[in-house]
Amino acid sequence: MPKKMGVNSKAEAARARRSATEADRKDRETREKEEQYWREAEGAKSRAAKKREEEAEKRAEAAAKKAEVRRLAEQEEKDLEKSMRKPDKKADRVSVPVPKVTEAELRRRREEEQAALQRRAEEDKKKQSRIADEEEYERMVSVENTNRDDSKIEARSVEEAIAQMTVVDSLPVDKHPEKRLKASFKAFEEAELPKLKEEKPGLTHTQYKDMIWKLWKKSPDNPLNKKCLVALSLYVVVVNDTSLFYPNLNMQVVDKP
């Protein structure tokens, strides 16, 4: 019967260590493979998600462009239709609220209208008066004095009467008194108008002419007024070789027998 040999403890320990090392290596390799697998899986998933996001962004951008193009086309079509239609005046009209008129406002308006009518009536009256005065003046300057009595001499004394009798006979007859009167009025108007404008500014030309006409009727520069300067016209009457003067315009010359 063969001899039974003893167990080498060292060799058993070395073999156990090798087995443990080999198991650890295999376990480590297994873990590394798993980790590499999951890393690759996660990386591929990230790239796919990124690609999907990029594609989604591209689709959204394309849709936005299409929507903008469609909006611009619709807007252009609306503008074209609006330009071809006739403008609606009623649509553009702005409704303005009518203010409420009070009784005081109505009364004020009536007073203003009455005042305006009164002013217009006064202006018409002044205009008619001025026309009548001008017509009267025209008649006065256009008609020659046919009622002149050469036998009546206006004088304040006998000597003046005799002198006038001599002078009147030698004076020429004024055949056109209207021309002289018109020239006198023209000169009077040119002299008075600047004074009135300075004293009473702001009036109309018609008002100035009315004032000048009233001044002219009373002015001593008016030749018609010069004939009336002598308040009492004296008539020379010879009675018994005595010269008498009667202060009465309507008195007739009487020769006492």
Gist?
By secondary structure, the protein is mainly alpha-helical. The protein has helices spanning 9-84, 89-92, 103-142, 158-170, 177-199, 205-218, 223-226, and strands at residues 235-239, 242-246.
Briefly note the structural class of the backbone.
mainly alpha
Secondary-structure element series: HHHHHHHEE
The pLDDT mean sits at: 71
Low-confidence stretches: 143-151, 166-171, 229-257
What is the strand content?
A: under 5%
Radius of gyration: 66 Å
Instruction: State the share of residues found in helices, binned by percent.
Output: 55-70%
| Shape label | rod-shaped
* Major beta sheet summary: 2 strands, antiparallel
Our count of helices gives: 7
Count of strand segments: 2
Order of neighbouring strands in the sheet with most strands? 1-2
The N- to C-terminal Cα distance equals 236 Å
Write the layout of secondary structure elements.
Blueprint: H1 9-84, H2 89-92, H3 103-142, H4 158-170, H5 177-199, H6 205-218, H7 223-226, E1 235-239, E2 242-246
Antiparallel strand pairs: 1-2
Helix pairs in contact: 3-5, 5-6
